[in-house]
Design goal:
By secondary structure, this protein is an alpha/beta fold. Helix content is about 40%, strand content about 15%. Helix 8 crosses helix 14.
């Protein structure tokens, strides 16, 4: 409870800072606004406004897709966040029309002159503040739980007492606030465990799968048969996500197979691990890339995606929330994954790839890589199945966003 009160106190400070930001919108704080705003923004100065809250200035892929959908549908967005890290707002498929950023907030689209129509919250830490704002404006509050925060906190850094206290803070914030939230959306974890957990506190829960935007499947091309096989990974560069094991397995391939293969890592994370990767022959690390860069890289190449996750409690519950898995499929890639969560169903049983144990055995991973290097026909068959799967209308983020629109909580923009 003390933690929740502390959070509320800090959020009241945010509200005070917000008033200053509003007065400064036409002044120096937003001198960094891009006069050539991103194309495709439908918001007008008379469009309804949406207030969004996030726990950090980094908008991860799921948050960025929420923001992109709001922008595409014609809403103007004001995003408030704790001043942690630098602003990162480039993970959407279409560029966000970021008109300015300050210490506490970013403005997406033209300043709204019309009413606030909804409040979105993307992190439990700022849920109390988002609830206060929704009550103040008398508008719906939509809260997205895009991680199993109670479990994630237990796996965090620090001593046992610290992680336990953090997990309790998440639990009681949810217990107090969720009954007052208009709609709670969440990722799909194995067996719907997160949805069931949230329904103990609120009956208004909507599961949203982390399927990629339609642009991923639209940009897919048949894989060439005469190219070296590129093993690719996109995401955070951490050992628990199998990056280290992937490199060790690739380096252990026989020389004749390595001559017909490459390993490409897209992402940022463990600086020491990245330095080691860069020093290895045949391994290329791509930092500071956006989704469009990754899709362009894959086009014209024969690729296999890596989704090699360690057997941590959270990863063992993975369902459709592993975004990279579906992005790989949308681009026609077979996948090498681990036996965690629903991966056996989504990869091995579907005939879309190979699995290794969640212990991240580099020997097993080496053998799986070798098997695919030596079997181009099998890769081609898996690639075709992946493309067929992802061409279904339901396998896009647009279809998931339509679930939110179908609730009627957001007004139509005319």
């Amino acid at each position: 409870m003390f933690f929740c009160c502390l959070t509320l106190r800090r959020e009241f400070e945010t509200l005070a800072a917000t008033a200053t930001l509003r007065r400064a919108e036409s002044g120096q704080e937003f001198m960094n606004a891009d006069p050539q705003a991103a194309n495709g923004n439908n918001a007008r100065t008379d469009s309804p406004g949406v207030i969004c809250f996030n726990g950090t200035r980094i908008a991860n892929k799921r948050v960025a897709m929420f923001l992109e959908c709001l922008q595409r549908d014609g809403y103007t967005v004001r995003l408030f966040a704790f001043p942690r890290h630098r602003w990162v707002l480039d993970k959407s498929e279409q560029p966000l029309d970021v008109r300015g950023t300050g210490r506490w907030s970013a403005r997406i689209g033209s300043p709204h002159r019309n009413r606030i129509c909804a409040v979105f919250c993307f992190h439990w830490l700022v849920l109390p503040a988002a609830l206060l704002w929704s009550v103040w404006y008398r508008v719906p509050l939509i809260y997205d739980e895009h991680d199993f925060y109670e479990m994630n906190s237990l796996e965090g850094t620090g001593g046992r007492w610290k992680t336990r206290l953090s997990s309790l803070a998440v639990h009681w914030t949810h217990r107090i606030c969720l009954p007052w939230v208009t709609l709670t959306t969440c990722i799909h974890m194995a067996g719907g465990i997160l949805q069931d957990h949230l329904r103990r506190m609120t009956g208004k829960v909507l599961e949203m799968h982390n399927y990629p935007a339609a642009v991923w499947r639209d940009s897919a091309q048949p894989q060439p048969t005469d190219q070296p096989l590129s093993f690719v990974y996109i995401g955070g560069v951490w050992r628990e996500k199998g990056v280290g094991a992937s490199a060790e397995a690739f380096l252990a391939l026989p020389a004749e197979l390595r001559a017909k293969a490459e390993l490409h890592i897209f992402g940022t994370g463990d600086a020491e691990l990245i330095r080691w990767l860069r020093a290895q022959a045949g391994i290329v690390v791509h930092n500071e890339t956006v989704p469009q860069d990754f899709r362009r890289f894959v086009q014209g190449r024969r690729c296999v995606g890596l989704a090699v996750l360690a057997g941590t409690p959270r990863f063992l519950l993975y369902g459709t929330n592993c975004t990279k898995l579906w992005e790989y499929y949308a681009l026609g890639m077979p996948v090498i994954g681990t036996r965690v969560g629903e991966f056996p169903e989504h990869i091995e049983a579907a005939g879309l790839g190979l699995l290794i144990d969640e212990t991240l055995s580099w020997q097993q991973l080496r053998d799986a890589m070798a098997a695919l290097v030596n079997a181009p026909e099998q890769c081609a068959e898996m690639s075709t199945r992946a493309l067929v799967l992802m061409r279904q209308a339901s396998m896009t983020w647009e279809a998931e966003w339509a679930k939110v629109k179908a609730t009627g909580l957001l007004p139509e923009v005319r």
